[in-house]
Amino acid sequence: MAGSLGRTPESLKASGRSSEKLSLSILQGKIKRDPEGYETELELIYKQFKASVDLFQQQAALSFSSVGGIGSEPSVAKDLGDRAMFLAHVTPFYPKQLAAFPAQLTDLLRTSCLAMPSGLRNHVAQALILLMNRKSLVIEDLMALFLDIQTLGDKNLRNLAFSHIIQTIRKMSSTDPKHKSLQKIVISMLEQEDETKAKRALVTLCELHKRKTWPGDKNDRVAIAICEACFHTSPRIMISALRFLLDYENLDDDDDSDASSSDDEDSKKISQVVINREAVYKANNKGTSSSKKKKQAKLQRAMKSIKKKQRSATENTDSTYSPLNHLNDAQKFAERLFSRLQTGKSTGERIETRLMMIKVIARTIGLHKLHLLSFYPFLQNYAMPHVKDITQILAAAVQSCHDGIPSDAVEPLFKQIVNQFVHDRSRPEAIAVGLNVVREMCLRIHELMTEELLQDLVLYKKSHEKAISAAARSLIALFREINPSLLVKKDRGRPGGPIAKPKLYGEVDVFSNVPNVELLQESDHESGSDGDEDDDDTELPGSEDDEQELIPDDCGSEEEAEEDTNDGDDINNTEDDSDIDTSIGGDEEEEMNDSDEAETDSENEEIENEEDDGEASDSSGEDSGNKEKAMGKKRKIVDFDANLLSADTSLRALKRFAEAKNERPSFDESDGILSNEDFRKIKELQAKKEAKIALARKGFKVPNSDQLSKKRVDPAKLEAHIRHKLTKEQRLELVKAGREDRGKYKSKAAVKQKKTGGSSNKQKEHKKNMPLAAIRSKAGKSKRTKKMKNSLSGSQFRGRKAWK
Fold it and tell me: Fewest CB atoms within 10 A around its CB: which of 237, 428, 584, 735?
């Protein structure tokens, strides 16, 4: 059969060619060089292709019911695949002669794909891909076909078709109108009841959405279609959609595009840490070695937190993004999924599937701040320590809480968690988890906590288990910020500012002005002597800024170092330094005798405030001087020349600052419209303010409701990571694991015996003769020691006799 379809000598003579046998690859190269000269051969091979298609279809119709299919005639399939690839390569050179070839090849794969062997299917699919790359076919013609052939069970063909669809759509422009038609094809296939086709359509949508080819902000219909797949009749489709919605925030994007890399580089350049030079100087030069270590560690923590905030502000991170953000009717979606969850136990749904539905419902409630009050009594049935995956259920309960829900609806669940987890007979892990969940729920709904319950929970801070005491202290730190009146007086801490008042139900903060615009107004109205500028050009070296008030001044004494390390978390708001002229006068009085009592009163009080933070500031200069003399303390001596130089430079900096301020109009003098320069300055001032707060380490910043609703609750952070005591077998395993990379122990003698070659330099030094001076010195030393020993031998006291 192959010979009848092959090229005959008569046909070659008719075209003017020699009768030598040519392969299809050689003929393909010649056609590309001279298309017009090989039209006869092309027509002949095209006819042979049609004859091969007819013969293949006849054999497929005859042997379709057999198990082997057309396996008995592999030559027919091989010839058909070779001619299909040959014609696909030369189609661009003969657009008129082969105009119907792409449609014929598409119909062949659509109608006879089940009867084809695996190799022929791959050849035909590759030929169609080649035709589409050569612009002979469009992707709309192949989209549905390539989605259908992925359901045949052929792994190689499925990977080929799937990767081709993904790569082709990714290469398309984001403004290409073909995206809508392709999305319509895939979504229509997802809505079918056929499980295999819907599964491939869902996988395609999820992959393109994950790679941000069809992102949710520009293609809402894709995100909505993935969310609606949670209600598919097939359980497998529903589970796949739920798993994608839950795992989307944990996906690591492997997109190596140039745009993403450039964005990362820009964000790294923008993020800069604003730390005062005075704080860096104190951490490295002032105080004892132990206090300097603590200050340096504190500085590193502050820099890390500031970098993290700046990075999150500059980068376009998708950590809070979810396809659930694009739901048109989130309330209806949550209610439908909750109704399916309630009937899932009766229909035989697995506990893992129900857990995923619980987490998706909770995430939807938290993102859109929905009211699904029947969801909390449903969770109350699972709020017990012995339930499987209880931390994930508790994380879902925390996720579903927001400030828009009345406390009465969540209070039964809250009491259930407290009663089941936090009691004396519970395990330490359960108590720590319960306290952490209570803290997170109270962070979102402040009205849940009562004074009696809080005082009972606070007593766990004395527990010997580190996880329990840490959870209790975190609860104390939270209520110091949101409602310190519920705490007893000793747990409220030092009053560092106005006492926080709890918000009422439904109370929200409404911005009446540009956020943080008051920082710009303060910078416009501040005086040069205040020294609030931290820039290198406008910093006043002789003055104190706000950050020096946040960090206690360290004068080098041990008492101050201990006070700094013990009370480093509190803000020292009582420290008030004098201006430049007064500091210069104070330095002169330290070197001169007390001649003017009127001047020494204020200066002695300043010195006492700087050196002794705990002493009273209302005493007179003579009393303070007598106290210092009685206690034997010395006054701090400051270099007069250095202080004078700093005052000179500060005056010049103050003058430059005043000139720059006069050139620029203030905020009030302008028309109230902020420019780009104003917004940039507000951003810088906000960064400096955050740096001061981070260095002060006063409590923690309570996030607002929008930040809490967007952030996903991690169940691992609710767990108590208690390190139990290791057994002897576990310790031996750790010891043996540490010895794996280490070589076997050998003595030095064994190593020397196995050594080959000459002696080492150390051995050669032992054989060298000592210098003459060294020999004489050694001999003289031995003579002196011998003489000393002989002189002491006779007069040495040997003790008294017992009978005397």
Answer: 735
